[in-house]
Amino acid sequence: MYYRQRNIGKFIGKGEITMATSLAEIRARLQQQDTKTQGTGDKGIYAHWNIPEGATTTIRFLPDSDPKNSFFWVERAMIKLPFAGIKGQPESKPTWIQVPCMEMWNETCPILTEVRPWFKDESLKEMGRKYWKKRSYVFQGFVRKDPLGEETPENPIRRFIISPSIFGLVKSALMDAEMEEMPTDYERGLDFQVTKTTKGGYADYSTSKWSRKESALTTDELAAIEKYGLFDLNSFLPKKPGDVELKVIKEMFEASVDGQPYDMERWGQYYKPAGASSGYNASATSAASSVVVDDAEPEAQVSVAPPFTPNASVATPSEAPKPSGQKAEDILAMIRSRQKKQ
DSSP characters for 55-67? Predict the structure, then answer.
């Protein structure tokens, strides 16, 4: 049996209660944030970036099971550290490691602390963009139209890794006064249509949009929510680094800037490249270690310049990491020296 109140989005099923906030609260929170200037093997993740050019997939977003989350998504901020290769593997190709940015937990990120001043120097801006955080957003919901023709998993509630460009379209519509209902409402919610085109040789999703017509969840969709429950989206964020992990991240960052290869024996217990276990004792990496698996869509991995360089060009995922022409210590020493003089 289901019990829900449309205005507050309450749904009770199988002993669990999930709560979605009002649209007005979401708008207030988004405005507050603006004021502050702020491929995967997991079948639970729907890879919408793999749909054919010109195709559209229809998604129905669902609320977060965490009642403390005012939104129906969580933000993920990651930093990619490029390396020339892997130490001890002469034939290894350029690779990269993805690590969590501490700003995800509203704490100081040691990498961004070093990188921010680089944008004041024209000769360091390009390198600064390479090490800037990449945002993506984790949602959950149903795939109502699937151009990929995938077999639906046993649990049809999928997760979506949404890039900043698509998220901007989601957010702008939420701020539109003409949207009267929560789009995650079970009876009068809205589908979101992700359309893939190309622009300048790259995937473009700018024509994606919310459906104009409201629709109710189907009996099968409601049954799936009752049977499986909604996800706590925070559980899909990376593990927060502790003191040891932060030290490792700092070491990897300096080695990356220096153009050194990735050292599996030194850092593999904490962070390692996806699929780099070949030739390495995988047992050394415990289940409790904070290994980061890349499940972000390719478009979301595009390097985005920080707020004070909004019109700067971006680097594409296909670009191979290039060793720096300067030593990391020299660059960091130069930056710190300039800061002291200011």
Answer: -EEEEEE---S-T
